[in-house]
């Protein structure tokens, strides 16, 4: 069933390409139908999940280097698969009439993302990692606006360099394992390079650079703001909601379990990178005039909290706190996907109606477009961690896990990161003030309220965020065994 | 006991036989029916492919004391034959040319030279093969008899002749130092010989092989020939001779040089780094797609030299070289097929190609992303193996240089990909059907090799 989940969108994408006479409307219907069916299948996976690694398939691929097509789902990948399926469905609903090419590209990208989150072979992971870059490049270059070619090129070059560093790291893991293999399950069971700390450090550096670019963390985040600003709304939602998670997912799936010694030794560095990303991202976001750039920088900040938690999990301290920090990180991945996905779709409305993201040109939108204003406010509140929405559950766990880990360093880092939350609250409130409240700006007149398709797309994301915020158990029951497993792997 | 069974050389004899038949037939056929020669040549190549498939099942051995029958030989045979078949299919624009049949015959003879280069384990046979692979190439480069073609042919010839002499000098030195020309004899003899002579001989010998591979410092002919010769010839000379030259360098390295103590590894590694970097930097500003492809092939030669530098130190070196060669040949010919189908060298003429001919545009995207090394194309698997062999062979710095170069190369390939999907100016043109079909075939083949790479290794 997992294979069907992964390749169903790809099959639909090829079908769309093979039917050149299909109109934009029919293509949109096929797109929505496929993504909805795929989401149902993922929910089926969720229902049958029993805690371990399910639905595994392993086929020979390149036997001479021991690489195989190996996929499976566990508590770490399941929430992300569900998030991916949901967010792609939402994008399909949000973008009716975009045409055959757009739908085919998004379906292709969906297969790639689902494949990445279920890959259990380093090479397979890398293939999907690279294809996600190619797919997103064409989304930005083909359907973006503004200086889209330049932004797309910067995105491609930057993340491609990161992916090659990642590949070198993977080859290092392959060569370090005895017998040589790319299989994630085997490499996790017996960590390679256990007795050569120097080589392990280099491999962690290569893998870390690759994943840090994708996450992105400071100082390798500079590709993100232009890519987001010039991407179409649905593209931004996928880029922030799904593609950014690949970096953190790689840390949880590959770097931490396979290089536990190196991860523990350099946990302090990782902690500091996370801290700097969280605070610096929020500070820079505060200074933005462009709504989309602002949301992009808050993404850097939100990803920073996750990295902070993962770094704390590698420091000395009690295991319960570590588990909490990792669970919080995984919850944050889901929460950020929902809320930032919604925020980018809402930001798309600005550009769609009035052609600009400049906050200074709006004001008092709430009067003419109350639904738009209300949904934006909910997404913004959720994003800075208001209790009752998913962001609070995630950040609360991360901070509790980091500060409560019985170490002075982690406690200080956690305390230093807390102002980031305050900054985020300030910047989102400032945005709401300047665009939604107050007197009308020069472009306020152009803003009409949300269309049915837009509301239908955005409301489920916020509703799910609310559900997680109020009753998170259904999600945490899946996540917690996975985070406990990761923490025990890191501490061996 | 020396093995002298002509049946061991069946693929080579089939290529030679069909070339001779084609030459004779070409003398009698009227101009508009020279296509028959292509059919004869293609039949010979198909036979050679079948014979290779049969021979590949046999054990590893040496025949005529100078011709190795091993994985390298079989793989290069197959890749060269398939490439030559693709080139014959791309020759459509020259149909009805007064010297059409000569084109086919020269392509076959040069291919034969490339195969023998890859298989030779004796310096004299290597020299003969070098000449056989080169001289038809010179004639092909000047095939159109126009000013640019003549200039290209002259440059190609002068450089090839000069470096051929240098290579012969190197062989003489190695012969003197190692007291033999056969590789097994040299492997023993050179270990005890004076290091200075061995080093000088090795450098001189490599000069000729680097010329065939189109690598630094013997790369100057590549852009001129690629741009000046007819497109189908350009497609041929940037792929097939390279296969022979690199396979010969690998054989020399893994069978002879590993037994010497001269610093050839560092030399090859530095040349590889220089080749990939120079090719990539020079490709940046090109507005002529054939020149762009020319510089891109130079950078590819750099990547292909990496397994040579780690020959004998990593088990991955041989599969890396062979798989990369096959992947590169298919992808490069696919890109050239698009150029021939479009019938223009100007980058600006590719604007809006997707609207006019979506499959052609998609093939070009696959081939160019393939040349970058994006999964799941064939070159990705090749690059992966090359990266692996470099790290495994203790040349991590080379892997890093290669990664940086790969990223740099994205820039100019994207300069070609992006305009395909823009709305273009409406100068009417018709794609050539045969070349379009071959472009799609090559793109599909590149994907199949990438996804089902395991099946290839099983052979």
Automatic annotation (TrEMBL), chain A:
It is found in: Endomembrane system; Membrane. The chain crosses the membrane at residues 76-94, 101-117, 123-143, 155-176, 196-213, 233-254, 266-287, 294-317, 329-350, 371-396, 408-429. The keyword Transferase does not apply. Keywords: Membrane, Transmembrane, Transmembrane helix. It is a multi-pass membrane protein. Residues 119-414 form the NADH:quinone oxidoreductase/Mrp antiporter transmembrane domain. Belongs to the complex I subunit 4 family. NCBIfam families: NDH_I_M (TIGR01972). This is NADH-quinone oxidoreductase subunit M. It comes from Actinocorallia libanotica. The lineage of its organism: Bacteria, Bacillati, Actinomycetota, Actinomycetes, Streptosporangiales.
